[in-house]
Amino acid sequence: MGSSGAPPEPAVAAARKLHHLLRSRDLRPALSYLRTLPSPLTLLPNHALNALLRALAAAGRVRAAASLFRSIPSPTPHSFNSLLAALLRRGRRRAASALLAAFLRSPDASPDVTTLNTLLHGLSTASPRPSAPTLLKFFRFLPETYAFAPDAITYNSLLSALCRAGDLATARNLFDGMRASEGGSKSGAFPNVVTYTAMIRAYCAKGLADEALALVKVMAANGVPPKRITYNTMVQGFCEAGRMELVKEVFEMDSFKPDTCTFNTLMAAHCREGRIEDAIKVFDQMTELHVRCDSASYSMVIRALCESGEFGRAEELVDEILEKEVLKKRERKIRQNVDLSTNLIDVLFKNDLNDRAYKITKRLYDNGYYIKMEKVIAKLCEDKKFIDAAEFTLFSLQKHHALGVAVHSLVLDGLCMDGRAAEAFRLLYELIENGSTSAVAAPRSLVLLHHALEEAGKMKEADFVGKQMRRATARIRQRS
Fold it and tell me: Does the keyword Transit peptide apply (predicted)?
Protein backbone atom coordinates (compact mmCIF):
# COMPACT_ATOMS: atom_id res chain seq x y z
CA MET A 1 0.00 0.00 0.00
CA GLY A 2 1.15 3.53 -0.56
CA SER A 3 3.26 5.24 2.09
CA SER A 4 1.86 7.81 4.52
CA GLY A 5 0.98 11.19 3.08
CA ALA A 6 -0.49 11.91 -0.34
CA PRO A 7 -0.27 9.00 -2.77
CA PRO A 8 2.02 9.52 -5.75
CA GLU A 9 0.43 10.90 -8.92
CA PRO A 10 0.27 7.54 -10.83
CA ALA A 11 -1.64 6.02 -7.92
CA VAL A 12 -4.17 8.88 -7.91
CA ALA A 13 -4.75 8.53 -11.66
CA ALA A 14 -5.08 4.73 -11.44
CA ALA A 15 -7.51 4.95 -8.52
CA ARG A 16 -9.61 7.55 -10.33
CA LYS A 17 -9.76 5.40 -13.45
CA LEU A 18 -10.72 2.28 -11.44
CA HIS A 19 -13.48 4.14 -9.57
CA HIS A 20 -14.85 5.35 -12.90
CA LEU A 21 -14.90 1.84 -14.39
CA LEU A 22 -16.56 0.41 -11.28
CA ARG A 23 -19.61 2.61 -11.88
CA SER A 24 -20.64 0.10 -14.53
CA ARG A 25 -22.44 -3.12 -13.57
CA ASP A 26 -20.09 -4.95 -15.89
CA LEU A 27 -16.89 -5.56 -13.94
CA ARG A 28 -14.92 -6.86 -16.91
CA PRO A 29 -13.51 -3.45 -17.99
CA ALA A 30 -12.37 -2.73 -14.42
CA LEU A 31 -10.73 -6.16 -14.06
CA SER A 32 -9.10 -5.82 -17.50
CA TYR A 33 -7.72 -2.42 -16.51
CA LEU A 34 -6.41 -3.88 -13.26
CA ARG A 35 -4.38 -6.44 -15.22
CA THR A 36 -2.66 -3.65 -17.15
CA LEU A 37 -1.32 -2.01 -14.00
CA PRO A 38 2.18 -2.84 -12.73
CA SER A 39 1.84 -4.24 -9.18
CA PRO A 40 -1.74 -2.96 -8.65
CA LEU A 41 -1.88 -4.10 -5.02
CA THR A 42 1.01 -1.82 -4.08
CA LEU A 43 0.15 0.96 -6.54
CA LEU A 44 -3.53 1.48 -5.68
CA PRO A 45 -4.56 3.15 -2.41
CA ASN A 46 -6.80 1.33 0.03
CA HIS A 47 -10.01 3.13 -0.97
CA ALA A 48 -9.66 1.93 -4.57
CA LEU A 49 -9.04 -1.70 -3.55
CA ASN A 50 -11.94 -1.52 -1.12
CA ALA A 51 -14.19 -0.22 -3.88
CA LEU A 52 -13.20 -3.19 -6.06
CA LEU A 53 -13.74 -5.57 -3.15
CA ARG A 54 -17.21 -4.13 -2.57
CA ALA A 55 -18.08 -4.34 -6.27
CA LEU A 56 -17.01 -7.99 -6.49
CA ALA A 57 -19.07 -8.84 -3.42
CA ALA A 58 -22.13 -6.99 -4.76
CA ALA A 59 -21.84 -8.93 -8.02
CA GLY A 60 -21.97 -12.20 -6.09
CA ARG A 61 -18.33 -13.01 -6.78
CA VAL A 62 -17.54 -13.71 -3.14
CA ARG A 63 -14.67 -16.08 -3.90
CA ALA A 64 -12.93 -13.39 -6.01
CA ALA A 65 -13.61 -10.81 -3.28
CA ALA A 66 -12.08 -13.11 -0.66
CA SER A 67 -9.04 -13.70 -2.88
CA LEU A 68 -8.57 -9.94 -3.33
CA PHE A 69 -8.93 -9.41 0.42
CA ARG A 70 -6.16 -11.93 1.15
CA SER A 71 -3.90 -10.10 -1.30
CA ILE A 72 -4.32 -6.65 0.26
CA PRO A 73 -1.14 -5.94 2.25
CA SER A 74 -2.86 -4.02 5.07
CA PRO A 75 -6.66 -4.48 5.12
CA THR A 76 -8.57 -1.60 6.68
CA PRO A 77 -11.79 -1.87 8.72
CA HIS A 78 -13.63 -1.05 5.52
CA SER A 79 -12.00 -4.08 3.83
CA PHE A 80 -13.05 -6.40 6.65
CA ASN A 81 -16.59 -4.96 6.78
CA SER A 82 -17.14 -5.27 3.01
CA LEU A 83 -16.16 -8.94 2.90
CA LEU A 84 -17.99 -9.70 6.16
CA ALA A 85 -21.23 -8.30 4.72
CA ALA A 86 -20.81 -10.34 1.53
CA LEU A 87 -20.19 -13.60 3.40
CA LEU A 88 -23.20 -13.09 5.68
CA ARG A 89 -25.39 -12.17 2.71
CA ARG A 90 -24.48 -15.46 1.05
CA GLY A 91 -25.12 -17.43 4.25
CA ARG A 92 -21.48 -18.41 4.72
CA ARG A 93 -21.55 -18.19 8.49
CA ARG A 94 -18.42 -20.27 9.13
CA ALA A 95 -16.31 -18.15 6.78
CA ALA A 96 -17.77 -14.98 8.34
CA SER A 97 -16.85 -16.24 11.82
CA ALA A 98 -13.27 -16.94 10.71
CA LEU A 99 -13.01 -13.47 9.15
CA LEU A 100 -14.36 -11.83 12.31
CA ALA A 101 -11.80 -13.74 14.42
CA ALA A 102 -9.01 -12.49 12.12
CA PHE A 103 -10.44 -8.97 12.39
CA LEU A 104 -10.36 -9.10 16.20
CA ARG A 105 -6.72 -10.26 16.10
CA SER A 106 -5.60 -7.68 13.53
CA PRO A 107 -2.99 -5.25 14.89
CA ASP A 108 -3.75 -2.63 12.22
CA ALA A 109 -7.57 -2.62 12.00
CA SER A 110 -10.23 -2.53 14.71
CA PRO A 111 -13.96 -3.25 14.50
CA ASP A 112 -16.17 -0.18 14.40
CA VAL A 113 -19.88 0.60 14.46
CA THR A 114 -20.23 -0.52 10.85
CA THR A 115 -18.85 -3.92 11.85
CA LEU A 116 -21.45 -4.24 14.59
CA ASN A 117 -24.29 -3.14 12.29
CA THR A 118 -23.14 -5.61 9.63
CA LEU A 119 -23.07 -8.45 12.13
CA LEU A 120 -26.46 -7.67 13.65
CA HIS A 121 -28.18 -7.32 10.30
CA GLY A 122 -26.44 -10.26 8.65
CA LEU A 123 -26.94 -12.68 11.53
CA SER A 124 -30.53 -11.68 12.28
CA THR A 125 -31.63 -12.22 8.67
CA ALA A 126 -29.74 -15.51 8.24
CA SER A 127 -31.14 -18.98 8.75
CA PRO A 128 -31.04 -20.34 11.36
CA ARG A 129 -31.25 -17.11 13.28
CA PRO A 130 -29.06 -16.74 16.35
CA SER A 131 -30.61 -16.44 19.79
CA ALA A 132 -31.32 -13.09 21.39
CA PRO A 133 -28.49 -13.56 23.97
CA THR A 134 -25.99 -14.07 21.13
CA LEU A 135 -27.00 -10.80 19.46
CA LEU A 136 -26.98 -8.96 22.78
CA LYS A 137 -23.46 -10.29 23.45
CA PHE A 138 -22.17 -8.71 20.23
CA PHE A 139 -24.11 -5.53 21.01
CA ARG A 140 -22.34 -5.15 24.37
CA PHE A 141 -18.92 -6.68 23.71
CA LEU A 142 -17.74 -4.78 20.61
CA PRO A 143 -18.57 -1.20 21.75
CA GLU A 144 -17.08 -1.81 25.20
CA THR A 145 -13.91 -3.46 23.86
CA TYR A 146 -13.21 -1.10 20.97
CA ALA A 147 -14.59 2.12 22.46
CA PHE A 148 -17.23 3.17 19.98
CA ALA A 149 -20.87 4.10 20.51
CA PRO A 150 -23.72 2.20 18.83
CA ASP A 151 -25.77 4.41 16.53
CA ALA A 152 -29.46 4.43 15.61
CA ILE A 153 -28.88 1.78 12.92
CA THR A 154 -27.36 -0.51 15.55
CA TYR A 155 -30.32 -0.17 17.90
CA ASN A 156 -32.85 -0.55 15.09
CA SER A 157 -31.11 -3.65 13.72
CA LEU A 158 -31.07 -5.30 17.13
CA LEU A 159 -34.62 -4.21 17.91
CA SER A 160 -35.90 -5.64 14.61
CA ALA A 161 -34.03 -8.89 15.23
CA LEU A 162 -35.53 -9.24 18.69
CA CYS A 163 -39.01 -8.52 17.36
CA ARG A 164 -38.61 -11.08 14.57
CA ALA A 165 -37.53 -13.62 17.19
CA GLY A 166 -40.71 -12.86 19.16
CA ASP A 167 -38.76 -11.60 22.19
CA LEU A 168 -41.01 -8.63 22.74
CA ALA A 169 -40.03 -8.11 26.38
CA THR A 170 -36.31 -7.68 25.59
CA ALA A 171 -37.15 -5.51 22.59
CA ARG A 172 -39.30 -3.26 24.78
CA ASN A 173 -36.51 -2.95 27.36
CA LEU A 174 -34.09 -1.90 24.61
CA PHE A 175 -36.64 0.56 23.24
CA ASP A 176 -37.28 2.06 26.70
CA GLY A 177 -33.51 2.37 27.18
CA MET A 178 -33.28 4.42 23.99
CA ARG A 179 -36.11 6.67 25.14
CA ALA A 180 -34.51 7.12 28.57
CA SER A 181 -31.25 8.21 26.90
CA GLU A 182 -32.89 11.02 24.92
CA GLY A 183 -32.22 13.52 27.67
CA GLY A 184 -28.51 12.97 28.16
CA SER A 185 -27.00 10.40 25.82
CA LYS A 186 -24.31 11.53 23.41
CA SER A 187 -24.68 8.51 21.17
CA GLY A 188 -27.47 10.02 19.11
CA ALA A 189 -29.22 6.64 19.20
CA PHE A 190 -32.70 7.98 19.87
CA PRO A 191 -35.90 6.27 18.72
CA ASN A 192 -36.79 7.30 15.19
CA VAL A 193 -39.62 6.33 12.84
CA VAL A 194 -37.91 2.99 12.06
CA THR A 195 -37.65 2.18 15.77
CA TYR A 196 -41.28 2.97 16.52
CA THR A 197 -42.55 1.15 13.42
CA ALA A 198 -40.60 -1.98 14.35
CA MET A 199 -42.17 -1.99 17.81
CA ILE A 200 -45.64 -1.31 16.43
CA ARG A 201 -45.24 -4.18 13.96
CA ALA A 202 -44.14 -6.48 16.78
CA TYR A 203 -47.17 -5.56 18.90
CA CYS A 204 -49.48 -6.15 15.93
CA ALA A 205 -47.86 -9.53 15.25
CA LYS A 206 -48.63 -10.54 18.84
CA GLY A 207 -52.23 -9.34 18.51
CA LEU A 208 -51.62 -6.47 20.96
CA ALA A 209 -53.53 -3.90 18.95
CA ASP A 210 -54.24 -1.49 21.83
CA GLU A 211 -50.54 -1.35 22.76
CA ALA A 212 -49.64 -0.62 19.13
CA LEU A 213 -52.13 2.25 18.94
CA ALA A 214 -50.91 3.67 22.27
CA LEU A 215 -47.33 3.61 20.99
CA VAL A 216 -48.16 5.56 17.84
CA LYS A 217 -49.68 8.26 20.04
CA VAL A 218 -46.48 8.34 22.14
CA MET A 219 -44.53 8.55 18.89
CA ALA A 220 -46.43 11.65 17.76
CA ALA A 221 -46.17 13.23 21.23
CA ASN A 222 -42.37 12.79 21.15
CA GLY A 223 -42.09 14.67 17.88
CA VAL A 224 -41.52 11.65 15.63
CA PRO A 225 -44.15 11.92 12.88
CA PRO A 226 -45.40 8.53 11.69
CA LYS A 227 -44.85 7.66 8.04
CA ARG A 228 -47.08 5.77 5.64
CA ILE A 229 -45.40 2.49 6.45
CA THR A 230 -46.19 3.06 10.14
CA TYR A 231 -49.88 3.65 9.43
CA ASN A 232 -50.11 0.77 6.96
CA THR A 233 -48.43 -1.54 9.48
CA MET A 234 -51.11 -0.65 11.99
CA VAL A 235 -53.96 -1.03 9.51
CA GLN A 236 -52.73 -4.47 8.50
CA GLY A 237 -52.21 -5.55 12.12
CA PHE A 238 -55.61 -4.26 13.23
CA CYS A 239 -57.34 -5.95 10.28
CA GLU A 240 -55.65 -9.27 11.05
CA ALA A 241 -56.72 -8.91 14.69
CA GLY A 242 -60.30 -8.18 13.62
CA ARG A 243 -60.19 -4.77 15.33
CA MET A 244 -61.95 -2.75 12.64
CA GLU A 245 -62.90 -0.05 15.18
CA LEU A 246 -59.19 0.70 15.59
CA VAL A 247 -58.76 0.86 11.82
CA LYS A 248 -61.46 3.54 11.82
CA GLU A 249 -59.54 5.41 14.51
CA VAL A 250 -56.37 5.35 12.37
CA PHE A 251 -58.32 6.71 9.39
CA GLU A 252 -59.52 9.61 11.56
CA MET A 253 -55.96 10.70 12.42
CA ASP A 254 -55.24 14.08 10.86
CA SER A 255 -51.75 13.20 9.65
CA PHE A 256 -52.83 9.98 7.92
CA LYS A 257 -53.38 9.93 4.18
CA PRO A 258 -54.37 6.41 3.07
CA ASP A 259 -52.69 5.11 -0.07
CA THR A 260 -53.18 2.17 -2.42
CA CYS A 261 -51.58 -0.27 0.04
CA THR A 262 -53.93 0.88 2.81
CA PHE A 263 -57.09 0.34 0.79
CA ASN A 264 -55.90 -2.99 -0.59
CA THR A 265 -55.22 -4.23 2.94
CA LEU A 266 -58.69 -3.15 4.03
CA MET A 267 -60.39 -4.75 1.00
CA ALA A 268 -58.50 -8.00 1.56
CA ALA A 269 -59.66 -8.06 5.19
CA HIS A 270 -63.31 -7.55 4.22
CA CYS A 271 -63.10 -10.26 1.54
CA ARG A 272 -61.43 -12.66 3.96
CA GLU A 273 -64.32 -12.23 6.41
CA GLY A 274 -66.96 -12.52 3.68
CA ARG A 275 -67.96 -8.84 3.87
CA ILE A 276 -68.24 -8.45 0.10
CA GLU A 277 -70.35 -5.29 0.13
CA ASP A 278 -67.86 -3.58 2.47
CA ALA A 279 -64.98 -4.50 0.14
CA ILE A 280 -66.82 -2.95 -2.81
CA LYS A 281 -67.51 0.19 -0.76
CA VAL A 282 -63.80 0.52 0.03
CA PHE A 283 -62.99 0.29 -3.68
CA ASP A 284 -65.57 3.01 -4.43
CA GLN A 285 -64.01 5.14 -1.71
CA MET A 286 -60.61 4.78 -3.43
CA THR A 287 -62.13 6.15 -6.62
CA GLU A 288 -63.81 9.04 -4.79
CA LEU A 289 -60.54 10.02 -3.08
CA HIS A 290 -58.58 9.68 -6.36
CA VAL A 291 -56.29 7.03 -4.87
CA ARG A 292 -54.59 4.99 -7.59
CA CYS A 293 -56.04 1.50 -8.04
CA ASP A 294 -53.43 -1.11 -8.96
CA SER A 295 -53.80 -4.63 -10.30
CA ALA A 296 -54.37 -6.07 -6.82
CA SER A 297 -57.18 -3.57 -6.18
CA TYR A 298 -59.02 -4.58 -9.32
CA SER A 299 -58.39 -8.27 -8.73
CA MET A 300 -59.98 -8.18 -5.27
CA VAL A 301 -63.01 -6.13 -6.25
CA ILE A 302 -63.66 -8.23 -9.37
CA ARG A 303 -63.61 -11.33 -7.22
CA ALA A 304 -65.99 -9.66 -4.75
CA LEU A 305 -68.39 -8.56 -7.50
CA CYS A 306 -68.44 -12.04 -9.00
CA GLU A 307 -69.17 -13.60 -5.63
CA SER A 308 -72.08 -11.19 -5.17
CA GLY A 309 -73.40 -11.87 -8.69
CA GLU A 310 -72.72 -8.39 -10.07
CA PHE A 311 -71.24 -9.58 -13.35
CA GLY A 312 -72.10 -6.42 -15.27
CA ARG A 313 -70.08 -4.23 -12.93
CA ALA A 314 -67.22 -6.74 -12.99
CA GLU A 315 -67.17 -6.54 -16.77
CA GLU A 316 -67.13 -2.74 -16.59
CA LEU A 317 -64.04 -2.91 -14.39
CA VAL A 318 -62.30 -5.11 -16.96
CA ASP A 319 -63.00 -2.36 -19.51
CA GLU A 320 -61.58 0.16 -17.06
CA ILE A 321 -58.43 -1.91 -16.63
CA LEU A 322 -57.85 -1.95 -20.35
CA GLU A 323 -58.70 1.71 -20.91
CA LYS A 324 -56.54 3.01 -18.06
CA GLU A 325 -53.77 0.46 -18.68
CA VAL A 326 -53.69 -0.43 -14.99
CA LEU A 327 -51.23 -3.19 -15.77
CA LYS A 328 -48.22 -1.21 -16.95
CA LYS A 329 -45.44 -2.84 -18.94
CA ARG A 330 -43.42 -3.50 -15.81
CA GLU A 331 -46.41 -5.40 -14.39
CA ARG A 332 -47.16 -7.43 -17.49
CA LYS A 333 -44.55 -9.96 -16.43
CA ILE A 334 -46.86 -10.79 -13.54
CA ARG A 335 -50.21 -10.54 -15.33
CA GLN A 336 -51.72 -13.15 -13.05
CA ASN A 337 -52.09 -10.39 -10.42
CA VAL A 338 -55.46 -9.70 -12.08
CA ASP A 339 -56.48 -13.31 -11.75
CA LEU A 340 -59.34 -13.12 -14.19
CA SER A 341 -58.92 -16.80 -15.02
CA THR A 342 -60.39 -17.80 -11.66
CA ASN A 343 -62.34 -14.68 -10.72
CA LEU A 344 -64.38 -13.54 -13.67
CA ILE A 345 -64.03 -16.00 -16.55
CA ASP A 346 -64.69 -19.08 -14.42
CA VAL A 347 -67.67 -17.51 -12.68
CA LEU A 348 -69.18 -16.38 -15.99
CA PHE A 349 -68.97 -19.93 -17.34
CA LYS A 350 -70.46 -21.32 -14.15
CA ASN A 351 -73.45 -19.04 -14.66
CA ASP A 352 -73.72 -19.99 -18.35
CA LEU A 353 -72.69 -16.50 -19.44
CA ASN A 354 -70.43 -17.94 -22.13
CA ASP A 355 -70.71 -15.06 -24.59
CA ARG A 356 -69.51 -12.61 -21.95
CA ALA A 357 -66.64 -14.91 -21.02
CA TYR A 358 -65.49 -15.19 -24.63
CA LYS A 359 -65.85 -11.46 -25.23
CA ILE A 360 -63.81 -10.49 -22.17
CA THR A 361 -61.11 -13.06 -22.92
CA LYS A 362 -60.76 -11.79 -26.50
CA ARG A 363 -60.59 -8.20 -25.30
CA LEU A 364 -57.85 -9.06 -22.80
CA TYR A 365 -55.72 -10.87 -25.38
CA ASP A 366 -56.26 -8.12 -27.95
CA ASN A 367 -54.80 -5.66 -25.45
CA GLY A 368 -51.73 -7.77 -24.75
CA TYR A 369 -52.82 -9.40 -21.49
CA TYR A 370 -53.00 -13.10 -20.71
CA ILE A 371 -55.09 -15.17 -18.35
CA LYS A 372 -54.32 -18.53 -16.80
CA MET A 373 -55.79 -20.38 -19.74
CA GLU A 374 -54.66 -23.81 -18.54
CA LYS A 375 -56.60 -23.27 -15.32
CA VAL A 376 -59.72 -22.10 -17.15
CA ILE A 377 -59.69 -25.10 -19.50
CA ALA A 378 -59.11 -27.54 -16.63
CA LYS A 379 -62.07 -26.02 -14.78
CA LEU A 380 -64.28 -26.26 -17.88
CA CYS A 381 -63.38 -29.93 -18.27
CA GLU A 382 -64.11 -30.52 -14.60
CA ASP A 383 -67.57 -29.00 -15.17
CA LYS A 384 -68.07 -31.22 -18.29
CA LYS A 385 -68.10 -28.17 -20.59
CA PHE A 386 -65.85 -29.80 -23.17
CA ILE A 387 -67.05 -27.79 -26.20
CA ASP A 388 -66.15 -24.55 -24.41
CA ALA A 389 -62.81 -26.06 -23.42
CA ALA A 390 -62.13 -26.95 -27.07
CA GLU A 391 -63.02 -23.42 -28.20
CA PHE A 392 -60.63 -21.92 -25.66
CA THR A 393 -57.91 -24.35 -26.73
CA LEU A 394 -58.29 -23.24 -30.36
CA PHE A 395 -58.41 -19.59 -29.27
CA SER A 396 -55.10 -20.07 -27.43
CA LEU A 397 -53.64 -21.65 -30.55
CA GLN A 398 -54.64 -18.62 -32.63
CA LYS A 399 -53.06 -16.28 -30.05
CA HIS A 400 -49.82 -18.33 -30.00
CA HIS A 401 -50.38 -19.19 -26.34
CA ALA A 402 -48.90 -22.69 -26.05
CA LEU A 403 -50.81 -24.94 -23.65
CA GLY A 404 -48.94 -28.23 -23.95
CA VAL A 405 -49.73 -31.88 -24.53
CA ALA A 406 -51.34 -32.42 -21.11
CA VAL A 407 -54.00 -29.74 -21.69
CA HIS A 408 -54.69 -30.89 -25.26
CA SER A 409 -55.12 -34.50 -24.08
CA LEU A 410 -57.43 -33.43 -21.26
CA VAL A 411 -59.83 -31.77 -23.72
CA LEU A 412 -59.59 -34.53 -26.34
CA ASP A 413 -60.28 -37.25 -23.77
CA GLY A 414 -63.23 -35.32 -22.39
CA LEU A 415 -64.79 -34.86 -25.82
CA CYS A 416 -64.38 -38.56 -26.64
CA MET A 417 -65.90 -39.72 -23.37
CA ASP A 418 -68.77 -37.26 -23.88
CA GLY A 419 -69.58 -38.86 -27.23
CA ARG A 420 -68.25 -35.95 -29.27
CA ALA A 421 -65.72 -37.72 -31.47
CA ALA A 422 -66.28 -35.34 -34.40
CA GLU A 423 -65.48 -32.28 -32.27
CA ALA A 424 -62.42 -34.06 -30.84
CA PHE A 425 -61.17 -34.84 -34.36
CA ARG A 426 -61.69 -31.22 -35.42
CA LEU A 427 -59.63 -30.05 -32.45
CA LEU A 428 -56.84 -32.55 -33.14
CA TYR A 429 -56.73 -31.60 -36.83
CA GLU A 430 -56.49 -27.89 -36.02
CA LEU A 431 -53.74 -28.54 -33.48
CA ILE A 432 -51.75 -30.51 -36.05
CA GLU A 433 -52.30 -28.04 -38.88
CA ASN A 434 -51.53 -24.91 -36.88
CA GLY A 435 -49.40 -26.22 -34.04
CA SER A 436 -45.81 -27.35 -33.78
CA THR A 437 -44.32 -30.33 -35.56
CA SER A 438 -43.95 -32.20 -32.27
CA ALA A 439 -46.65 -34.28 -30.60
CA VAL A 440 -49.87 -32.39 -29.83
CA ALA A 441 -51.50 -35.13 -27.73
CA ALA A 442 -50.51 -38.09 -25.59
CA PRO A 443 -50.49 -41.51 -27.37
CA ARG A 444 -53.28 -42.80 -25.12
CA SER A 445 -55.47 -39.86 -26.22
CA LEU A 446 -54.89 -40.76 -29.88
CA VAL A 447 -55.87 -44.38 -29.14
CA LEU A 448 -59.05 -43.22 -27.38
CA LEU A 449 -59.94 -40.89 -30.26
CA HIS A 450 -59.26 -43.60 -32.87
CA HIS A 451 -61.59 -45.98 -31.05
CA ALA A 452 -64.31 -43.30 -30.67
CA LEU A 453 -64.18 -42.43 -34.39
CA GLU A 454 -64.46 -46.08 -35.41
CA GLU A 455 -67.49 -46.51 -33.16
CA ALA A 456 -69.05 -43.41 -34.75
CA GLY A 457 -68.44 -44.84 -38.24
CA LYS A 458 -66.02 -42.09 -39.23
CA MET A 459 -63.46 -44.39 -40.84
CA LYS A 460 -61.65 -41.72 -42.90
CA GLU A 461 -61.00 -39.67 -39.78
CA ALA A 462 -60.02 -42.81 -37.88
CA ASP A 463 -57.42 -43.63 -40.58
CA PHE A 464 -55.96 -40.13 -40.20
CA VAL A 465 -55.65 -40.60 -36.43
CA GLY A 466 -54.13 -44.05 -37.03
CA LYS A 467 -51.32 -42.40 -39.03
CA GLN A 468 -50.71 -40.00 -36.15
CA MET A 469 -50.55 -42.98 -33.77
CA ARG A 470 -47.89 -44.65 -35.91
CA ARG A 471 -45.88 -41.41 -36.04
CA ALA A 472 -46.12 -41.07 -32.27
CA THR A 473 -44.92 -44.67 -31.85
CA ALA A 474 -41.99 -44.02 -34.20
CA ARG A 475 -40.99 -40.89 -32.18
CA ILE A 476 -41.05 -42.90 -28.97
CA ARG A 477 -38.83 -45.59 -30.51
CA GLN A 478 -36.37 -42.95 -31.76
CA ARG A 479 -36.05 -41.47 -28.27
CA SER A 480 -35.47 -44.92 -26.74
Answer: yes
**Cα 356 to Cα 345: distance, rounded to the nearest angstrom:** 8
Mean pLDDT of 176-193: 70
DSSP 342: I
Query: pTM, whole model, 2 decimals?
Result: 0.67
Q: Let me know how many helices (H) and strands (E) the chain has, helices first.
A: 28, 0
Q: Give, rounded to a whole angstrom, the gap between the first and last alpha carbons of the chain.
A: 63
In angstroms, the Cα distances linking 465 to 201, 438, 456 are: 63, 15, 14
Which tens digits make up the pLDDT trace of 155-178?
Answer: 999 998 888 888 899 999 998 888
Cα–Cα dist 321/300, whole Å: 13
The predicted model gives 453-475 an average pLDDT of: 86
Max intra-chain CA distance, the chain: 98
The answer to whether 393 touches 403, Cβ cutoff 8 Å, is yes
Mean pLDDT of 233-260: 91
Q: How far apart are CA 3 and CA 342, in angstroms?
A: 69
pLDDT, greater one: 476 or 99:
99
CATH class of 261-371: mainly alpha
Q: What angle do CA 115, 121, 126 make, to 5 degrees?
A: 120
Query: How far apart are alpha carbons 254 and 251 in whole angstroms?
Result: 8
What's the pLDDT score for residue 26? 87
Q: Write down the domain spans for the chain.
A: 1-83, 261-371, 404-480
